[in-house]
Write a structure and sequence with these properties.
The protein is an all-beta fold. It is built from no helices and eight strands. It has a single domain, classed as SH3 Domains (SH3 type barrels, Roll), CATH 2.30.30.
């Protein structure tokens, strides 16, 4: 299974992505702002989700809200 971002670029483990929409995260006081970079993503079994670490929190983000940097 191939994991692709909102534009159609292929995503791999360790890539850097950019948030394309401001997202409110449940359980966190911080929101993910549009244009924020996330480094060292991990692809998981589901091709529509990625896993990443922001601070000490580990999140799963839908690929429709990110694009490859």
């Amino acid at each position: 299974m191939e994991t692709k971002d909102s534009v159609g670029n292929l995503l791999n483990d360790g890539d850097t992505v950019i948030i394309s929409k401001t997202l409110k995260v449940k359980g966190m006081s911080k929101t993910l702002k549009r244009g924020e970079k996330i480094k060292n993503i991990r692809t998981i079994g589901d091709p529509q989700n990625i896993e990443c670490r922001i601070g000490k929190n580990q999140l799963v983000i839908k690929t429709q809200f990110i694009k490859k940097a």
